[in-house]
Structure formats: C-alpha cells, structure tokens
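quick one
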Amino acid sequence: MIRPGQSVLEVRHLRKKIGRRWIIEDVTFNVLAGEIFGFLGPNGAGKTTTIRMLVDLIKPTKGTIEICGYDVRRQPEQALARIGAIVENPEVYPYLTGWENLEQFARMLPGVDAARIQEVVELVRLDQRIHDKVRTYSLGMRQRLGIAQALLGRPKLLILDEPTNGLDPKGIKEMRDFIRRLAEQGMAVFVSSHLLSEIQLLCDRVAIISSGRVLAVGCVDELIANQSNYVVWEAEPRVRVVELLKRSGIPIIPQPEAVLDDSVMAGIAPDAVICQMESSRMADFVESFTAEGLRIQSVYKLNPTLEQLFLEMTEGETIE
Ligand SMILES: Nc1ncnc2c1ncn2[C@@H]1O[C@H](COP(=O)(O)OP(=O)(O)OP(=O)(O)O)[C@@H](O)[C@H]1O
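structure w/ adenosine-5'-triphosphate:
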C-alpha cells in the first residue's frame, strides 16, 4: 500500500553514455504518491533518454532507478508492473473500437477484466464513444485511450511524455483536469513537457534538466520565489538611479526584453531600471535614493514565470 507523499520513483545519479558521449551526466530526483511532477528541459536536454531508462527500454550506464522500492534493472517485473507509460506513440489499432483495443491490451495483463476496462473508460471519460472505431476519434480521444491503456494495470506511477502535444485549448484543459484527478486519487504522475506555462499550471514539483544534468528540483512556487531577485525602479533621474545602483555593485539588466516575457514587459514603465537585488535590500536603497534627492514613483519586485527562471538557468538555450 502506497501512502500519499511516499516516494514512488527514486532516480539516483543516473548517467548514460552513448558511443563516446555522456548524454545524461547526472540526474537525481524523486516523485511522490499523489503529486504531479514536471520534467522540463530544452530540446536535446535528455528528457526522452531519461524516460526510456525509467521504463527499461535502455540501460543506464551508471546510477539507479527504483519504483516502489523495486530496482528497474534488478527486479524489472515488479518495477514495471507498477508503471503505466505513454512513451512514443501508443500502439492503437484504428480499425478496432476503443473497447476492442483495450481488450487486446488487457490480455497481456494479469487480473484485468471487463469491469476494470469499464472503470478506466469512465475514468478517461470515453464511455460515450468507446464502442466506435478508433479511426473516428479526435486526437484528444486517442490520447485518452492511450492513457486508459496505461492505467489498466493499476499503476502507481504514470509517465506521460508531452501529454498535451497537438491538443487544442479545450483538449489541453480536459487533459490537465484529468491528470489532476489521477493525482488526487493518489497516483504519482510524471509529465515531460516543453510547455513551461503548462508545467507551471499543472505540476506540484518540477525538475529542470539541461545538457543531461538536473539544474534544480523543487516546488514550482518555491523555485520561482528563490530565484526571483529582479527589482524594478521607476525613479528619476534615471541616470542617477543607474549610477547609484552600479556604485553599490548591483547588476543592472541591460536588455530586460531578452529575459522577460512580453506580457511582463508590457506592465513595466519604458524608462524603468531593472536590476538584480535581494528584496530585503530594497528599503535601504529607497532611503539612500531619497537622501540623494531622487524621486521614486514606484519600486517593486518582479515575480518571474517559470519560463524566465528556466531561461536564466539554461542561459537562454532555446526551448522547442
Ligand atoms: N541513440 C543515440 N545515439 C546518439 N545520440 C543520441 C541517442 N539518443 C539520444 N542522443 C542524443 O542525446 C541528447 C539527448 O537526447 P534526448 O532525445 O534525450 O533529448 P530530449 O530532451 O528528449 O529532447 P527532445 O525533446 O528533442 O526529444 C541529444 O543530443 C541526442 O542527439
């Protein structure tokens, strides 16, 4: 029995060498029961390679992966029985109905009967169309059928590679709500995505991966709060603001539009000065600016989005 908050997936110091290259250099994280965990990284960061090791499609060069305490390499049967995964395109037969597809798949799983199939069909809300041929399904419905397949064996951990890829906004929202329901029922859900805003909306915790290394792991809000040290000064004269900040060794962001979202930039006065400073130092600077005769219209801390945090950490590597 897995309790909420108990570790379901433990990945420790995972490394993978292909040919002469270390594709994965050092990846460590865990995923807890009842949480949605995001795996974020730019193109080529190593997400797919990591996922392929999680489901035992390829072998790690170093490091360990445990699922509910079972080592994926040494106890693959026990470990893999506890994972439901959609990695690469799930195999579905378009000329069969959704139900027939699930029946086919269930044959490989011990203890999965018609009642269980009906249960997952209701869970993914396909009951209205489950007896129609899959070729008549929308992409979102096919995706949900894939998830139904992955859920048949009552996994403790669900691994989804880019689950909202190709879906329209309505489909994305449905998928998000659905993933949340699964986590609420106690499942651990691991989601890889390049859609940062999506991860920010969906996930409880996130690992940021770049060039085969995990750069940060944590609660999305905490990561953002720790990283957020951008302070905006709307004060006059501007040259004096820059001068005084520089004199105190405070770095000024020369091109804020390169690191901040357009939506964030739109809310900032065009002649504002944006610098990096601990917010605890703001009050002292307000005092000294006032003493120097500067007029301060406003001063505030920016809350970066996950996207900015990510760009900072990966030093502007392009995201897919
Ligand atoms: N079999 C392989 N042989 C050689 N290089 C590989 C192999 N598989 C992956 N790579 C390389 O390893 C790096 C990581 O690839 P991976 O597919 O894991 O990244 P990713 O984060 O999933 O990116 P994407 O989202 O583009 O798939 C890339 O530079 C890729 O070219």
